[in-house]
Amino acid sequence: MEKPEMEQIMKKAEVLIEALPYIQKFNRKIIVVKYGGSAMSNEELQKNVIKDVTLLKLVGFKPIIVHGGGKAISRWVEKAGKQPVFVNGLRVTDEETMEIAEMVLGRVNKNLVSMVEELGVSAAGISGKDGGLLRVTKKYSDGKDIGFVGDVKDVNPKILYDLIDRDYLPIVAPVGLDDACQTYNINADDAACAIARAVGADKLVFLTDVEGLYRNFEDKTSFISRISASDADRLIDEGIIGGGMLPKLHNCTAAVKGGVNRVHILDGRIPHCLLLEIFTDHGVGTAIVGDEEG
Fold first, then answer.
1. Given this model, what pLDDT does residue 15 score?
2. What are phi and psi of 216, to 5 degrees?
3. What is the dihedral of CA 101, 106, 111, 113, to 10 degrees?
4. Within a 13 Å sphere around the CA of 242, how many CA atoms are in the beta-carbon half?
5. Which residues of the chain fall short of a pLDDT of 50?
6. N or C: which end of the chain has fewer CB within 10 A?
7. How far apart are CA 91 and CA 68, in angstroms?
């Protein structure tokens, strides 16, 4: 065997050895992956994410996927002759838009199930309506009525535990019911955070369209690879974090304070970012940890 070929093989072995302690540490632990944004924008990116999550399951993790579908919903709303409307980043959801959203999310859900099944792992696609998983109240945005948008008030994780115990990978669409069994659309970040807290997830991962947190987004040297929940709250209070990252970071700190061991913000456009963050010493995103670790 030629020396360059042997060196390549040795590098692969080193990668596996580096991953070993992480596999041992997180074996049989629940990890919730919120999947949406540009990571869903093309088939190759989708396949990379699904391969990562499937591998996590095969090496002993207990993954749960919570997915979005906002861009696809907007396309179908436009096809129906309507203009998508957002207030503070939340979709204004009238009755017709709610029907479209549920249809699109159901289609996305089953496509993800098919991709997991193609890799030889059993998956079960559900929504927050199944088994009373997600109960909601009507959500308002700064006092404005934005239609059928739900705030998660209660999570009944029994259906998730049942699926995991039967060796299924649960894939959840963010739709829930109120006490009158009216259907509501739920922000996928909110749904993932609520589910992670309810199941006592060891990790919650947000696959986003940015690399992670920056103290100054224009200054790439200000990247934050690790931060405590309290320090993250201080960044929010000081106005350093804004825009679309603000509600996401609120969810991250709430999850850590609610018992999730660690929350990761990753750029879902980077191939296999999930594996790089969890199984390597350096990682590729931002980790939000408890104050005792920070």
1. 65
2. -140, 110
3. 140
4. 5
5. none
6. N
7. 12
Q: Give 54's contacts (C-beta < 8 A, 6+ positions apart).
A: 116, 119, 121, 169
Supply the pLDDT for residue 8: 67
b/e map 37-53, b = 16+ CB within 10 Å? bebbeeeebbebbbbbb
- How far apart, in whole angstroms, are the C-alpha atoms of residue 68 and residue 186? 9
Give the residue ranges of DSSP H helices in the chain. Answer: 3-26, 43-58, 70-79, 95-118, 158-165, 188-199, 229-237, 245-257, 273-279
Q: Is residue 276 within 8 Å of 244, Cβ to Cβ?
A: no
Gap between the Cα atoms of 236 and 135, Å rounded? 28
pLDDT digits (tens, 9 = 90+) for 204-233: 999 888 888 888 777 778 888 889 999 998
Q: Which two tokens stand for residue 285?
A: 């995103």
Q: Is the pTM of this model over 0.85?
A: yes
